Structure formats: structure tokens, C-alpha cells
Amino acid sequence: MVAYDSYYLLGLAYIMKKDIHPTYYTDAKIICSCGNTIITGSTKKEMKVEVCSACHPFYTGKKRLVDSTGRLDRFKKRSEKTAQIQAVELAKKQAKKKPAPAKAVKPAKKKVAAKKAVAKKVAVKKSTAKKAPAKAKKK
């Protein structure tokens, strides 16, 4: 049978198995990047954090930029790189858009004359086509 430790809290029994839980340190330290140290209970002996209640803008009312591991610098580099790429692409597009030397444009008289000739032939065919005899009106 498995051995259990029983703990009483507010009159309720809590049963925990032995040797399966991590070690709990009642004197664990939380060290902030601003230098503030907090002592609390945890399963880790020491923890390091970037922001705590002593330096967080929500609690202090001060505006402070927290730049963790150069995120702002990486963002600026990335935006500059994309701007350069876009500038190169724009230059390529403008180079393609430059018009070739203009060629002499010949008037399209032949096409217009051909269309008129076709229209005349169609008109002649319509006029020479046999017409159906009109029904005589009775008076």
C-alpha cells in the first residue's frame, strides 16, 4: 500500500503522496532587473524577472520602455531592410515602365475603307433580297 501524508487545512484533510512532489523553498528569492528583491515561497530557490511591482509602469505611474533582448533594435533593422527591398523593387518596376522609342504610327485608312466596303455589300444584299409580298388590305 502507498504511504500518504495528510495535511489539515481549515478542517479539511488533504492527502499527498510521498516523494513525487518537488522541494518547496519557503525562502525563495525573486530578483528584478531594477534591483528589487522579493522573498517568497516557491519550488525554485532563485528566480530573475525583468519587471516587478516596484518598477512596472502600471504600479508606479511612470512611463518606462522595457526593451527585452533588443526587440526594438531588431524591429528597426527589420523595417529598414524591408524599406530597402521595396525601394529596389520600385526601381525595377520603373525601369520596366520606361517606354521604348515611339514608332511612326500609320493611319488606319485601309481598315476604315475595308469596313465601309463590307457595309455597302451588306446594304446591297438587303436591298436585292426578295421581299415577301405584303398582304393587301381589305377595304
What's the topology here?
Elements: E1 4-9, E2 12-17, E3 25-32, E4 37-42, E5 46-49, H1 57-60, H2 71-97, H3 109-128
Parallel strand pairs: 3-5
Antiparallel strand pairs: 1-2, 3-4
Low-confidence residue ranges? 1-6
Please list the strands of the largest sheet in the order they lie side by side: 4-3-5
Rg from alpha-carbon coordinates: 45 Å
Write down the overall mean pLDDT.
Answer: 75
Give the assembly state of these chains: single chain
Overall shape: it is elongated
What is the chain-wise order of helices and strands?
EEEEEHHH
Main structural class? alpha+beta
What is the helical fraction, as a range of percent? 25-40%
Q: Specify the number of helices.
A: 3
Binned strand content: 15-25%
Largest sheet: 3 strands, mixed
Q: Report how far the terminal alpha carbons are from each other.
A: 125 Å
Count of beta strands: 5
